[in-house]
C-alpha cells in the first residue's frame, strides 16, 4: 500500500508515537548494550586540553549561528532562575545557583556533541541535527545521566541553603547591599564562603568524574550507562592532574561567561561543548 504524507496533526502524532517507542526501548536497555566491557582509555596530556579547546573553537566558528541558537537556552534558563531567586527573597542562593548551574552544563551540551560528531563525519549539520540524539540507541542512558546531574544540582542547592542557615542565617538578608556587606566583613560571612566553596568543589568533582566522557560515549556508541560512567571515572583516574585541570578550565570559563548577566555563555558554552567532544576522542580509544 502506498504511503501518503497525511495532515500535520496525524504526522505529528505518528512522530510522537515513534519517538515514544524509541525512548521506551532505550530506557529498557540502559544496562544491557552490545558492548559489555569498558573501552580502553588513554593517558591525557596538557596539550590535549589546548588542542581540544582549539578544535572546539573551530567547530563553533563553523556552525556558530546554529550552536548559538542552542546555547541560548542555557543563559535564558539561568536568568529565569536568578530572577525567581531575587523575587522569592532567596538572595543567598543566587551565587550557589549560578555555580551549581554549571553541573547541568554537560546536559545542555549534548546537542553540541552531536554537531561535532556530524562535522567529524564530514557532514554539514544545522541546529535541527542536534535533536538527532533522540534516535541514538543509548538515549535512555543519556536521559538517566541527565536526571542524575539534575538531582545533584538540587542536592547542592539544599546544601547551600544549609550552609547559609548555619553561618549568616537563618533569617533572610534585609537587602542585597547588606548581604554583601555581611558576607565580606564578618567572620560568619567568610565561614560561609570557605564552607560553601569547599562543599562546591566536592560536588564539582563528582559531576566531573561522572560526566567527563559519559555523554559523548553514550552518544557515540551502543553502550550501557554503567559502562559509560565507569569509563569516565577511569579517565579521571588515569590522568587525574589533566582532568582536574580541565574541570578548572571549564569552571573559570563558565564563571567568566556568567559575569555579563550570563550572556557570555552564548559563546563559552558551545566552545566548551565542542571541546569536550574532542577531548573524549583523545581520552577514549
From TrEMBL:
Iron-sulfur keyword on record: no
Top-rank taxon: Bacteria
Keyword Zinc: no
Keyword terms of this UniProt record: Membrane, Transmembrane, Transmembrane helix
TM ranges: 67-87, 93-113, 142-164, 190-219, 240-272
Coiled-coil blocks: none
Protein name in the entry: DUF2189 domain-containing protein
Organismal lineage: Bacteria, Pseudomonadati, Pseudomonadota, Alphaproteobacteria, Rhodobacterales
Amino acid at each position: 500500500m502506498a504511503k501518503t504524507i497525511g495532515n500535520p496533526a496525524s504526522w505529528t502524532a505518528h512522530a510522537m508515537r515513534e519517538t515514544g517507542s524509541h525512548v521506551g526501548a532505550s530506557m529498557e536497555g540502559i544496562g544491557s548494550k552490545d558492548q559489555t566491557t569498558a573501552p580502553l582509555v588513554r593517558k591525557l596530556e596538557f596539550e590535549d586540553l589546548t588542542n581540544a579547546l582549539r578544535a572546539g573553537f573551530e567547530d563553533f566558528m563553523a556552525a556558530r549561528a546554529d550552536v548559538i541558537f542552542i546555547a541560548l537556552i542555557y543563559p535564558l534558563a539561568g536568568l529565569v532562575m536568578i530572577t525567581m531567586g531575587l523575587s522569592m527573597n532567596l538572595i543567598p542562593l543566587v551565587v550557589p545557583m549560578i555555580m551549581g548551574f554549571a553541573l547541568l552544563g554537560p546536559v545542555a551540551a549534548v546537542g553540541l556533541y552531536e554537531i561535532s560528531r556530524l562535522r567529524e563525519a564530514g557532514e554539514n549539520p544545522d541546529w535541527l541535527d542536534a535533536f538527532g540524539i533522540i534516535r541514538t540507541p543509548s538515549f535512555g542512558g543519556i536521559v538517566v545521566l541527565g536526571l542524575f546531574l539534575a538531582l545533584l544540582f538540587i542536592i547542592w542547592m539544599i546544601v547551600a541553603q544549609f550552609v547559609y542557615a548555619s553561618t549568616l542565617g537563618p533569617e533572610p538578608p534585609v537587602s542585597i547591599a547588606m548581604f554583601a556587606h555581611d558576607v565580606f566583613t564578618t567572620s560568619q560571612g567568610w565561614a560561609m564562603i570557605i564552607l560553601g566553596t569547599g562543599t562546591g568543589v566536592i560536588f564539582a568533582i563528582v559531576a566531573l568524574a561522572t560526566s567527563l566522557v559519559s555523554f559523548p560515549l553514550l552518544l557515540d556508541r551502543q553502550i550501557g550507562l554503567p559502562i559509560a560512567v565507569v569509563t569516565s571515572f577511569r579517565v579521571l583516574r588515569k590522568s587525574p592532574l589533566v582532568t582536574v585541570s580541565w574541570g578548572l578550565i571549564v569552571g573559570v570559563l563558565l564563571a567568566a561567561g556568567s559575569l555579563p548577566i550570563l550572556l557570555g555563555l552564548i559563546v563559552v558554552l558551545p566552545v566548551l561543548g565542542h571541546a569536550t567532544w574532542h577531548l573524549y576522542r583523545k581520552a577514549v580509544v
